[in-house]
Structure formats: C-alpha cells, structure tokens
Amino acid sequence: MRYRLTFVAGLVLGYVLGTRAGRERYEQLKKSARQVAQNPAVRNTAETAAQQGREIAGKAFHAVSDKVGDRMPDSVAGRVRSLRERNGSGADDWGTSNT
C-alpha cells in the first residue's frame, strides 16, 4: 500500500511540476491535495500506519539488541545507556506529533 501511495504521489508531483495548464490548474490540484490531507479517514490511516511502524521498529530493536547485546563493546553500551538516561524514559517519539 505504501508503494502505491508513493507512486501516486510521484505521479501527482510530476504532473504538477510538468503541467502547462497554468496557475489555475495548479491551484485546483493544491486545493484537492489539501482536502485529501485533511480528510479524517486519511489522517486515521496515516496515524495507524505510523503506529504500526513504531511497533515493528520496537520489535526489531529488541530482536537486534538481544542478539548483539553481549557482543557490543562496553564503550558503545555505555554511550547508549547515557543517551537513554539523558532522554528520560528511553522511549522515543518518532512518528508522533511530539517531535
């Protein structure tokens, strides 16, 4: 699904940049894009996709850290620990409105 959306966005961008229809058509496309972006269904889908991405990234992080954790040099492990402590809980806000 993500690849389809990226492809469609690329087509739209290419059309907008390459069009010779003039400013009026550009403004019409811009208005349509804004309406789509403000659609609650689109916003909910985007937030759901972001949440799933965060969950998958968390699982991948834990899987990698379980496999690599003991093999990591102490200097690197200490640096990661200090960064987590400095940021508070160690949780990140990637993909949220807190960033």
Written overview of the protein:
It contains four helices and no strands. By secondary structure, it is mainly alpha-helical. The longest helix has 29 residues. It is elongated. The two termini are 25 Å apart.
Structure characteristics:
about 100 residues; about 75% helix; 4 helices
Categorize the overall geometry: elongated
Distance between the termini: 25 Å
Binned, the helix content reads over 70%
Secondary-structure-derived class: mainly alpha
Number of helices: 4
H/E element sequence: HHHH
Q: Which stretches are low in confidence, meaning pLDDT under 50 for 5 or more residues running? A: none
Cα-atom Rg, whole angstroms? 21 Å
Query: Strand fraction band?
Result: under 5%
What is the strand tally? 0
Look at the structure and give the mean pLDDT. 78
Characterize the main sheet. none
Summed up, what is this model?
The protein is mainly alpha-helical and about 100 residues long. It has four helices and no strands.
Write the topology of this structure.
Layout: H1 2-18, H2 23-38, H3 40-68, H4 74-86
